[in-house]
Amino acid sequence: MKPDAAINQTAAVEYWSSQTADLNGMLGGYPQLSRIDLQGSANFLAKLRTHSSAHSRTEPLGRVVDCGAGIGRVTLGFLCKVAQIIDIVEPVEKFTKEIREGDDFDGLRRRGQLGDVYTQGLESWMPDHNYDLIWNQWCLSQLTDDQVVEYLRRIQSFIDEDGWIVVKENITTHSLGKDVYDGTDSSVTRTDEKLRALFTQASLKIVGTELQRGFPKSLYSVRMYALQSVAMLSSETK
Questions:
Q1: pTM of the full predicted structure?
Q2: Is 135 helix (H, G, I), strand (E, B) or coil?
Q3: Residue 81, number of CB atoms within 10 A of its CB
């Protein structure tokens, strides 16, 4: 049986619902990694924007979406600094309640930066807006391979000109090149080769990628991928 066949989204939501709504809960007992992670993400996006004619670093992005947002750690620590409006997609209700009502998001709500908040899994989410950036971090691991491809195909038509889908995920270097299932949170850690194959199946091209630096060697490597639609890239070259 393929490792991803064991994924159960209901079990995954139950697991995450049992975690504390703080950095420790979101980062598996490594809250000190948040600052390093956010800086790595900010640096990666800045490099993408350096080479973009539509999204220079001098102006904020328009609308972006934080997918698999948890308690909104990435939105608060990174996306709110680079975008005018941030939507949230997160299946765990207690986390989206914190985003809608919690004190940490009061400033974003008052400034009108917090957009739509969807309490929904990525396997069923359909965007209502176009985006300059769709940020997916540590969440595709809880979709099956087929769901990842279907999701990426679905959302790419909602990316504005020269925008990006970014995927940031743990990477396994299994000695036999296999994906690894984790029954704790019903997730699969994929190989770099598998993720690249899924992106190709979804008709997406990698336009930027790099490893996250500064994490302990005892943890999985984390890689960021910036993706754009093959069809969009083809139309831009005509």
A1: 0.96
A2: strand
A3: 11
**Distance from C-alpha of 96 to C-alpha of 126, rounded to nearest angstrom:** 17
Q: At which residue do the structure tokens 């195909």 appear? A: 153
Residue type (1 letter), 153:
R
Alpha-carbon distance of 64 to 135, in angstroms, equals: 8
Tell me the pLDDT tens digit for each residue of 191-220.
Answer: 999 999 999 999 999 999 999 999 999 999
d(CA 208, CA 55): 15
Task: Report the distance separating Cα 85 and Cα 93, nearest Å.
Answer: 21
Sign of CA dihedral 194, 199, 205, 207: negative
For the segment 53-80, the average pLDDT, to the nearest whole number, is 94
Other residues' Cβ atoms within 10 Å of the Cβ of residue 214: 11
- The pair of three-digit structure tokens given for residue 30, joined into one six-digit string: 């490594």
HSE-up of 102 (CA within 13 Å, CB side)?
A: 16
pLDDT digits (tens, 9 = 90+) for 22-48: 999 999 999 999 999 999 999 999 999
Rg of the chain in Å (alpha carbons): 17
Q: 3-class SS at 211?
A: strand
* Six token digits for residue 78: 């990174």
Nearest CA to 162 out of 26, 20, 62 is that of: 62
Whose structure tokens read 């969440």?
Answer: 139
Cβ count within 10 A of residue 152 = 24
